[in-house]
Write a structure and sequence with these properties.
This protein is mainly α. It contains seven helices and no strands.
């Protein structure tokens, strides 16, 4: 069976994993703060989360504590913060609902690739650079969309265009990364089917 995570540890209790778990725990807090219109505190929570995101990656490399659990927790926390931001902003009418469906739709599509990977003996594939850049852009866009609610009115015309620029750039990269991911899954399944056919042919020839 193929294993694309041979270099990762099976440890659970590490500092990077603790920080990732903390970020996950902050997601519902962040969403609740948006819904009760505490946007400045919500922005602070997201800023703190972004710092821990950088810190857990730094510690994982510095302490050589890269783990299979961490590989799952870190992107999960990013995606949940993006989802929480989108839902909070859409519910409070700060962004249109189509933006939620465009962003969430990509992850919904990729969800259906997991059975194909599992059948070939793979777990979730590593996030590619386009995906990281898209996530980075979206994690900048949505906090910026919170700021007009806590800053003087004159700042809205400055911040919102920047926020939407990050959003559109992030969406494009997010979907591009998704297309790359689907292509990788297709190639893995193609190779797996070819290998299976070779094994069947060898058995039949004996």
């Amino acid at each position: 069976m193929a294993d694309n995570n041979l270099h990762l540890s099976d440890k659970v209790l590490t500092w990077p994993n603790v920080l990732s778990a903390l970020r996950l725990a902050l997601v519902p807090v962040f969403l609740w703060l948006i819904l009760i219109d505490e946007n400045l505190i919500a922005f602070s929570v997201l800023a703190f989360s972004s710092f821990t995101d950088w810190l857990d990656g730094y510690l994982a490399r510095k302490l050589n504590q890269m783990t299979r659990l961490g590989q799952l927790l870190d992107p999960a926390a990013d995606r949940l913060f993006i989802l929480a931001s989108l839902l909070g902003l859409a519910i409070t009418n700060a962004v249109p609902w189509w933006l939620v469906f465009v962003v969430v739709g990509r992850d919904f599509l990729l969800f259906f690739t997991f059975p194909f990977l599992a059948k070939a003996g793979y777990g979730p594939l590593p996030v590619n650079y386009s995906g990281k850049a898209g996530t980075f852009a979206l994690l900048y866009a949505f906090p910026l969309m919170l700021l007009p609610n806590v800053l003087p009115v004159g700042w809205t015309n400055v911040i919102l265009p920047i926020a939407w620029a990050f959003a559109f750039w992030g969406i494009w990269l997010y979907w591009w990364a998704g297309a790359i991911y689907v292509r990788q899954v297709y190639n893995i399944r193609k190779i797996d089917r070819e290998n299976s056919s070779i094994l069947v042919s060898k058995k039949e020839s004996k």
